[in-house]
Amino acid sequence: MDRSSRINGRRTGVRPRSNVISMRLDAAFFFERGVRSLERNDLQGALKAFRKTVEYEPDNPVNHCNLAGVLSELGDFAASNEVLMHVLRDLDPSMVECQFYMANNFANMGDYETAEEYVLRYLDAAPNGEYAEDAEEMLGILLGEFGGGKALARWEAERRQRERWHAEQDGRHLLEEGQFEAAVEWLERVVQNEPENTAALNNLSLAYYYTGRYEEAVAAAERVLAWQPDNLHALCNLAVFSAYLGQRERLHTLIRTLSKLFPLHYDHAMKLGTTLGLVGEHRAALQLFMKLVRLQAEPEPLLLHALAAAAANLGAYATARRAWRTLLRRGQLDEVANYYLVRLEQAERAGARRLRVSYQSDLPVEAQFAKLKERLERGDFDDWRQDPLLRASLYWGLRHGAEDTCRAVVRTLAWLADADAEKALRAFLQRPELSPSLQAAALYVLQRMGARGRVSLWRDGERVTLRMSEVPRDIILAVDPAWQLVWQAAEAWLREQHKTRLRTAAKAAWTGYLKHAFLRKDVVIGKPEVWAAALVYATLKRHNETVRQKDVAESFHVSSSSLSRAASQLTGFFMKMP
């Protein structure tokens, strides 16, 4: 139909002025509509709205969970379970609360044994989760009133077998990947269930040490030795702890014991040799590694590097060079071998009698930082997510990095946003030396992830615990002192000009822009006075206030051009006006 105007039957070509305000239809719009429908108890309206959120954002698991909830309210439990299974299978397996929702659906369908199975799955995955109390209550009802117990019996048997099998394997796996906080959490649970599992206790001792809990690390090693005085792993761990803590008498006693040993098991021998090297007994370490080399037809790469490290630390440069060149010839540990061969030449030219080399087969700290920063600059988030070794380097950066490195890692964890990233951030917050801005950055990312429950951190020299719901919604302002200054200057101007009614809109726009800037390394926020002026000007223009750009620029003593550039970046972050 032609919508142009007609006057006396003649087409004018001028379209009538429309009073319709264009609406941006997106997932957020339909989410709000769905919530309003639920508040009115309009389930069919809510169903339509949440189906739209799924259409607009099919990869967002929260949208699917909202849809599943409405389907369940409508009594379509089978359809609800199909949606929830899609979330767990295809979108986000870490959303374990879906197991609890499915348990409710199966119970409503009268399939009590399957409901029992899913409620157990939820409790297994999240024993302290948001619905843990409700799940335990449901399990009690299923067992007491509906004659259940078969799924529980199977689950108990599988749990015992799984924990026995995984106690050493998984603990070591987490340690090797650098996931020390996750290792502590897992191994504490294993040791609690199996107090005499010395393998798990030894790994827990190391996990405590790597997370800075030195007293607990020593206590765990001593606990093993109380049961097994000749336990090699505990003796080696205690020797490393004693060297680090400066306990010389105990260290000398342990070295005398360890120097007399030569384990037949290769892994045990490597552990012993590496320990001797770590505590400064390089000659004993070199002798042990050379024995191991003679016993192998083709020595392992880790053994060759350890031998080279012991030789370099002793000043036996020819032996070290041969080992690293062998690695290069085989195409093994190329990067590490190349790095140390260059360092070896430099040491010889400088006349250094010894070259300090780590027994660990990775690059030293300065080279690690260079690689970590390069990866962070590239922002290869899919690589971080998929490669456990890259992820381990992120956690390594959190523990050892300077402020700028830690900040970049925290930003990357905001993109990963999974359960393991959340654990790392919670552990990071427990460090007493964190600056207020880094602490705020970690809290903001946890908030962005939707983290729940309590978080422990330090304030004014004391450890405090607060609920995530208590973290201010505008915590993003505290991530950078300059960001806070911008808001304070803009707020002061609005107050002085009696325009405090615009305060909420201005603050929402600024925090919205900061959340955008936080996640992007290419967004730079420069002089606070420029951005304060831009925020004021953009807010006034947004609300149809009569204002001249030149006047606002002069108020903040900035140029109109710089104000204009900054204001143009803020315009898309204002809330829709009614």
Report the count of strand segments.
4
- The main sheet orders its strands as 1-2
Low-confidence stretches: 1-18
Beta fraction: under 5%
Radius of gyration: 31 Å
Q: Tell me, rounded to a whole number, the average pLDDT.
A: 82
Helix count, per DSSP? Answer: 29
> Kindly, what is the distance between the CA atoms of the first and last residues, rounded to a whole number of angstroms?
31 Å
Instruction: Name the structural class.
Output: mainly alpha
In helices, the fraction of residues equals 55-70%
> Quick one: biggest sheet?
2 strands, antiparallel
The gross shape turns out to be globular
Any descriptors?
single chain; 578 residues; mainly alpha; Serine Threonine Protein Phosphatase 5, Tetratricopeptide repeat; Cyclin A, domain 1; two-stranded antiparallel sheet; two-stranded antiparallel ribbon; 29 helices; 4 strands; 3% strand; globular
Write a structural description.
This protein is mainly α. Among the domains are: about 260-355, Alpha Horseshoe (Serine Threonine Protein Phosphatase 5, Tetratricopeptide repeat); about 365-470; about 480-575, Cyclin A, domain 1. Helices cover about 70% and strands about 5% of the residues. It contains 29 helices and four strands. It has helices at about 25-40, 45-55, 60-75, 75-90, 95-110, 110-125, 130-145, 150-175, 180-195, 200-210, 215-225, 230-245, 250-260, 265-280, 280-295, 300-315, 315-330, 335-350, 365-380, 380-385, 390-400, 405-415, 420-430, 435-450, 480-495, 505-520, 530-540, 550-555, 560-570, and strands spanning about 5, 10, 455-460, 460-465. The protein has a two-stranded antiparallel sheet. Helix 19 (about 365-380) packs across helix 22 (about 405-415), helix 21 (about 390-400) packs antiparallel against helix 22 and helix 25 crosses helix 27 (about 530-540). It starts with 5 loop residues before the first strand and ends in an 8-residue tail after the last helix. The relative contact order is 0.03. Mean pLDDT is about 80; it is low at about 1-20.
